[in-house]
Amino acid sequence: MPETIFQTQAMIAAMAPRLDTQLWRFVTVTPDKAPELLGAAIGTFREDEGVTAIVPAELADEAGLDGPDFARITLMVHSDLEGVGLTAAVATALADAGIACNMVAAFHHDHAFVPAAHSKRAMTVLKILQDSADL
Question: How far is the C-alpha of 80 from the C-alpha of 64, rounded, in Å?
Fold first, then answer.
């Protein structure tokens, strides 16, 4: 397993953003839809109001769950969960470009969910950010 990176500029320099071809949708899971949605979810979060799942947009359509579609950009760097600044740098760069961003941190990678229509521009923004990292 690759070594985790902790230092902010090193995380940014090594982030190597990768665009997923699958489109995703954030949905609220109801008990009647739980088996089909949770089995296909790549992420879930329990809130006071209920469970949110990130599921393939196609499955959300089949379940009759409307909402915006998102592209997932995985930052391939093995960032330390206690590392500071990667999420802020990514979110700020995308915000400065007028692109919404929903960040999800997992054990091995961070994932930026951006509106599907802006995915290619978001990739350009993140590559420029990576190239500008001052080591």
Answer: 38
Radius of gyration of the chain (CA): 16
Q: What is the pLDDT of residue 1?
A: 65
The domains located in the chain, with CATH, are 8-131 (3.30.2130.10)
Amino acid at 58: E
Q: How far is the CA of 123 from the CAs of 13, 66, 73, 82, 109, in angstroms?
A: 14, 25, 8, 25, 16
Q: How far apart are the C-alpha atoms of 122 and 108, rounded to whole Å? A: 21
Q: Given the DSSP bridges, would you call strands 50-56 and 102-105 parallel, antiparallel or unpaired?
A: unpaired
The tokens describing 133, both together, are 């990292």
pTM over 0.70: yes
Helices 86-96, 119-131: inter-axial angle, 10-degree rounding: 120
What number is the average pLDDT over the span 44-59? Answer: 97
